[in-house]
Amino acid sequence: MNKIFKALSIFILIVIISAIGVFYYFDSNMCENTEIIRTPSPDKKLYAVLFERSCGATTGFSTQISLINSNKSIENNEVGNIYIANGYPDNYSFNWLSPYVLNIRGTKTNALKKVSLYNSVTITYE
Prior knowledge:
The protein has one helix at residues 2-28, and strands at residues 32-40, 46-54, 62-69, 83-86, 93-98, 101-105, 113-114, 117-118, 121-125. With 126 residues, it is an alpha+beta fold. The protein has 2 domains: 1-30; 32-125, no CATH class. The longest helix has 27 residues, at 2-28.
């Protein structure tokens, strides 16, 4: 009886661990980023990238903005590093005032994330 119980316990443990692994794999790959605007800094070293992020049917769309190096792109597992707001990315625009100052227009007052300094770049919002 103990051997059967032990074998059944090990089997159930393996099933649970496998299910958790599958969940984390698919959960991390469910999001999709759709790039909307990419604007280079005056010295062409950085890009301000506006993108829409969707992570499946149980979540809504979000508007996100990242500053990235010119040789990079936005990956599906990345979130915005300077700005995140719920909803669609309507009426946003970028204006680089210098290689170290970025003005973003069209932002929402109820943003979930609004960074004002990122890697030596000052970000202002309107």
